[in-house]
Amino acid sequence: GDGKPVAPCRTASHDLAYQEGAFAYLDSYFGGWDFIGEEVVPEPTALPTDVPEPALGIGSMYVREKDGMEMMYVPAGPFIMGSNAESYYEDESPAHEVYLDAFWIDKYEVTNGQYQQCVEEGFCVILPSSEASRTREQYFGNPDYADFPVIYVEYYAAFDYCLWASDRRGLMLPTEAQWEKAARGTDERLYPWGNATPDCSLLNMAGCNEDTVAVGSYPGGASPYGVMDMAGNVWEWTRDYYAENFYSISPLNNPEGPEEYSDMNVIRGGSWGELEEDHRSVRRYAAYVGSTWYSLGFRCAITEESLAEWEQ
Question: Is the dihedral of CA 213, 215, 219, 224 positive or negative?
Answer without folding.
Answer: positive
